[in-house]
Write a structure and sequence with these properties.
About 40% of the residues lie in helices and about 10% in strands. By secondary structure, it is of the alpha+beta class. It folds into two domains: about 110 residues, no CATH class; about 100 residues. The protein has a five-stranded mixed β-sheet. Helix 6 links the parallel strand 3 and strand 4. It starts with a helix and ends with a helix. Bound molecules: coenzyme A. Coenzyme A (COA) binds next to strand 3 and helix 7.
Length: about 240
């Protein structure tokens, strides 16, 4: 976890508190569905469910939220750095949903970050392309079951991200026809800069729109909507091959 995670987490708690009020659900339920804290703390696996339960308990009991967050950050820090994903290629990682033949792509710069520039900066574009080339060569060798690439992210609003992929994939980006979830970074990621600090203007715009939040689609108050992009994987093999 890098500098000042509290403000990112604090923003998410404020968002969840608002959702709890308008949806008339307990705060702990809103924190569970509207924030990515569990994932960011590295508590997704069953073995760490007790940490998450204790955190939700602290939140639900109306304790000092800043203190509960601090404790969670300390517990996380005590584990040491989050282990690098086995299937990560620099900023990119993937998972295969074998039954559907779908490859999902994720983007997050590993720590420690490169201090020279953001990971999407043009001067670092060749690094990202090399990572994607390696990722797809690996997938080609090990996952013949993957036939379609599918991405769901706010990043598909950015030319700086789309230029890393086959043009048809970026061009396919469109609003999803299914409900989004807020327990990852596909929407929340937009409030962070490349140094993992909250962007003040994005935070302020989000807080200013909380009153417009709809219970059925709380993600719509974000400035950028997560978009869905997809293409046959053959396009990727041809593009990076
Ligand atoms: C992605 C991330 C590195 C962007 O941070 P950043 O500080 O804006 O990064 P940069 O300054 O390097 O900007 C990268 C490019 O994106 C553009 N950009 C970033 N946010 C933008 C926004 N909200 N609107 C328009 N353009 C934007 C910048 O203009 C720049 O493009 P350019 O080089 O063509 O000018 C940062 O948000 C992050 O790490 N987020 C968490 C990871 C994440 O969201 N993952 C998604 C998981 S599905």
């Amino acid at each position: 976890m890098t500098a000042s995670p509290e403000s990112y987490f604090d923003l998410q708690l404020r968002f969840a508190a608002h959702y709890a009020r308008i949806a008339r659900v307990p705060l702990r339920a809103a924190v569970d569905t509207c924030t990515n804290l569990r994932r960011r703390f590295g508590w997704m696996d069953a073995g760490r469910a007790a940490h998450w339960e204790a955190f939700l308990h602290g939140i639900a009991e109306g304790a000092d939220h800043a203190q509960v967050l601090r404790q969670a950050c300390e517990t996380h820090a005590a584990r040491g750095p989050t282990p690098t994903l086995a299937k990560a290629f620099g900023c990119f990682s993937y998972e295969v949903h074998a039954r559907e033949g779908v490859l999902r792509i994720h983007f997050m710069e590993p720590q420690p970050r490169d201090p020279r520039a953001g990971p999407l900066a043009r001067l670092r574009m060749h690094e990202r392309l090399a990572e994607l080339r390696a990722l797809f060569a690996h997938v080609r060798a090990h996952h013949p079951e993957a036939v379609t690439v599918l991405g769901v992210s706010w990043l598909y609003n950015l030319d700086a991200y789309k230029r890393l992929f086959p043009p048809g994939y970026g061009a396919s980006a469109a609003l999803p026809s299914f409900p989004l979830h807020l327990s990852g970074s596909s929407t929340w990621g937009q409030v962070l800069d490349h140094d993992q600090q909250v962007k003040p203007d994005v935070r302020d715009a989000l807080l200013a729109r909380l009153d417009a939040m709809a219970v059925q689609a709380p993600w719509r108050v974000f400035a950028l909507q997560a978009l869905v992009a997809s293409s046959p994987i053959a396009c990727f093999h041809a593009w990076y091959g």
